[in-house]
Amino acid sequence: MNQILVVGATGLLGSSAVRHLDKAGHQVRLLVRNAEKAVDLFGVRYEIVIGDVLNEENLAQALEGCQGVHISLDGNVELPAVKKISAFAKDAGVQRIGYVSGITVCEENTWFPYVAEKYAAEQVLESCGVPFTIFAPGWFYEMLGNFVKFGRALAFGRHPIPYHFMAVEDFGRMAAGAYGKEEAANQRFIIRGQEAIRFHDALRQYCAVLHPKIQRILTMPYGFAKLVARLRRSDEMAWAVAFMQYFEQVGECEGGEKADRILGNPQISFTDWLAA
Q1: Count of structural domains within the chain
Q2: What is the pLDDT of residue 1?
Q3: 14 exposed, middle or buried (CB, 10 Å; 0-12, 13-18, 19+)?
Q4: Residue 212: which pLDDT band, with cuts at 50, 70 and 90?
Q5: Within-domain flag for 211
Q6: What is the DSSP letter of 157?
């Protein structure tokens, strides 16, 4: 594939995909609402289309001449965006749609709204008639920073089962590699790291290197954390508590061998990531 449109390019996962698509020799085009943010991240290396993914005129302009689309979105726009792109892609000549979903996304977990949205998006892609690749990653090292604020490290719940953390850089490389592989078409890849680490242990190691003044992890039971979020009127905290409780309940899906075989396995260890 020559030209690939990235939707959600300025996000953590999207920006990594942009860099690795470039390294793999693809021409990269960005559909963004904030051109200044995109230029701050990437300079003027890539073609930028300023617009809204849900605006048909903007989307048609962004898709023109593209053989692939990489969708890396979250929030309320995600499912409508996948529907809109899927509807336009075939007539635009798109040969592959890539979509970032999540490791626990499946029908039995759709009781959790975040998963329900992503599962619905996956169903749209699988029935749209354009070859697709669904990426289903788990935990990233970079997510640990979200639990350190105002000189404190705060965790919700106990999380006794370890998670296979990985680096965003590895995910970007693996995702970008899918667009040059026919065997990655019409596939869903569970992508997770090689090391299984308990959440609290990972957060302790993170703080020991990057926030050495933090001596211990504060752990809040879910009920108390929800009360605090309500009192603070903090939607961010309420979401984090709900997500952590969900993840502790459903655990982490098995798999990853297919992704390792076709896309290349994650290579950056937690120790190396911290050192960098």
Answers
A1: 1
A2: 65
A3: buried
A4: very high
A5: no
A6: S
